[in-house]
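Hello,

Our lab assistant flagged a job as stuck in the queue for most of the afternoon. It eventually completed. Since we weren't sure the result was trustworthy after the delay, we are filing this so someone can double-check. Below is the sequence as submitted and the structure that was eventually returned. Let us know if re-running is recommended.
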Amino acid sequence: MNPVKSEKQREKTPVVLVVDDNQQNLELLQAYLEDINCRTIPAGDGPEALDIINDSAPDLILLDVMMPKMSGFEVCKRIKNDPRTSDIPVIMVTALNEFGDIERGIDSGTDDFISKPVNKLELVTRVKTMLKLKHLTDKLERTLAYLSEIEKQSQILKAD
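-- returned structure --
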């Protein structure tokens, strides 16, 4: 196998940060995602998740709501309020199902919800959809940046 090619393939593999304070839930979510072409990174609480996000922004975050130290609502709010991370999609995984909880999640900036107990098919489908959306959004941003650069070069050439 060509090591250069495998390195490029790894770069293209989407990264999903899975955040849950319950080890069994963390392992279950990661096991459910094994069938998807992605790499998972586990985090046991909000502060650990924020450290990981700051070090290397994942492509998607699966975020438990009820955690000690910092709730998923607070973690999501911090992610969405930071311009460097605000475009990372967040799916809240929660046993909460009251309308007020859903409203609080939306206010904190979540992109989607999955209810506990997690259904594997629902999780896999939503994660695939969010990763596809993230990929297309990133591609659009790169294209717009490229077009902007071409426009700048064109203006420079016209000025000469």
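-- support follow-up --
The delay was a queue issue, not a problem with the job. The result is valid. The chain has one domain: 3-134. Helices lie at 3-12, 23-32, 46-55, 72-81, 99-108, 120-159.
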